[in-house]
Structures are given as C-alpha cells and as structure tokens.
Amino acid sequence: MSETPFPQHTALSLAASGVPVLPLRRGKVPFGNCPTCADNACGGRPNMKMPGPCRCPGVCHAWAATTDPAVIVSPPWAAAWRRAVCVGYHPGGAGLTVVDLDDADAIAWARGALPATRTVPTTRGQHWIYRGAMASRNAVRPGVDIKSTMAYARYLGPGTGTMADLPDAVRALAVKEPSPVRPAAHAAVVSAGLGGGECPHRTPAYLARGIAMAEQRITEASSGVHATVYRTFLAVLSTHGRCGCLTDTHVTRLFTAAQRKGETARHCTDAWTNARTTLGL
Hints:
The chain is of the alpha+beta class. It has helices spanning 6-16, 69-72, 75-83, 104-113, 168-173, 204-219, 225-240, 248-260, 265-279, and strands spanning 21-25, 29-30, 86-89, 96-101, 118-121, 126-131, 137-141, 144-147, 153-154, 164-165. Helix 6 runs antiparallel to helix 7 (225-240), helix 6 runs parallel beside helix 8 (248-260) and helix 7 (225-240) packs across helix 9. The longest helix is centred in the last third of the chain and has 16 residues, at 204-219.
C-alpha cells in the first residue's frame, strides 16, 4: 500500500489528536472558491475563518477545518492536498493559543514577559503554544500576533518544551485600549494639564503614597506591561485627576517607570491620553 502524501499524512495525524486541519496553498493561505461557489454564489463564506451554509464538499470552504478523516481523504480534499504546500490548523478549535513571534526582538520580549511553554521554530521566529483558547488579534506588539479562535496557524512540527496553561499576560495583549481623541505628542512626558476641582487630599503624603504605589505596580509587572501601564494611569487619574494635585513631576515619574519596563515614550503618551479620555478629563 502506497504511503499517504506528506501533507495529508500530517493532517490525518493531527486530526486523530483532535486538531482541526486544512490544506494551505502557495502563499500559505486557504484555497479559494471552486467554480460552483465562485463569488459566494452558493451562499457560503469562504476564507472568512468560519463555515458558511454551503454544503459543497470541496476544500473551497476549508475554513470548516476538520478532524474527520473521511473528509480529509475525500476526493475533493485529496486533490487539494496534492497541491498544498503545507498544513494549516485551527488552534482555537483544539483549545490552543499560538503567540506568533516574528523576529528576534519579539522573542526577546516574550522571554521576559511570558511564562515558558511549548516552542516551535518558524522561518523567522517562533510559535509559543499555550493550552487554552481566546480571541485572536494581530499586531498586539511589534512582531507579535495571537492566533487562536477564528484564525489558522501553519503546522511546523510538535515543538519542544512542556505546554503551559494560557496566562493572563497573553489574554491582556488582546485587550484594546480606547483610541485617543487627537494624535498624541511624541514627547517623553506630557503636561499634567489637570485641575479645577476641590482637593480632597488633606496631606501631601496621600498623593506621594499613591504615586509611589503606582510606580511599584508598573515596576513589578512581570507580564502584560502594556495593559498594566494603561490601568495604572487610569487608577492615578481617577483618584487625582480632578483636584489639581498632579504635577508634571508626578507624570514624569510614572512615564519613567513605564519606560524602564520597555514601554516607548509614544505608548506612554497614548496611554495617558486614553486614560484621560476614558475619564472625561
């Protein structure tokens, strides 16, 4: 009996372990519509990371990624496997999340910010695979994408290391901050620009303690620094943002703490502006 062609053989092995698979054509993308389904004439939703109502058995609606071996070896899919350049899989469908690190800088960041887990080498970087599914989002940081539900990843081998549970640090990366109302400046700090309310703080020590605690929260963040900085700014402004206590010196201290954790001046400015916008300041 002849051996199953490599991509299809790999797909069958993954499917047997509960990982939904699909063939990827040149360009590492799913196959397009067949002639019958062209332009969604069948009512399906091809290549939209979800199955449509179409009953076409072909791979043109391959985003119904499957674990069914009968489908994988069926004539329509078999022809696609012969043309496939690699195997894709749906991480979320297998209860997994892939942190796609595209270059050496992204890998260096991950080693300092995320818990170790199973690692798979890619052409330019690494895939870090965690146990647990979440929403997918691209460009959460420079060179970093999250692939889980409603996304596919290229299968590049089993990888090495013990797979860890999906940490909050990865989930936090997909949390979108509100966009600033106007473009933020590129300066390292911004003016506090606050005041007008009655100051409820009876002693300078209250403010000093609050700023020190905010600096400590940022400094001690072991993961999710992006989200921690924004939430800390939000907490400071919600307490001190309307009474005129904050000065440019206080803001500089917070920005300095964030930049020591690797945040850029631009992100600090954006996070501060976003926090003010959220609070209506």
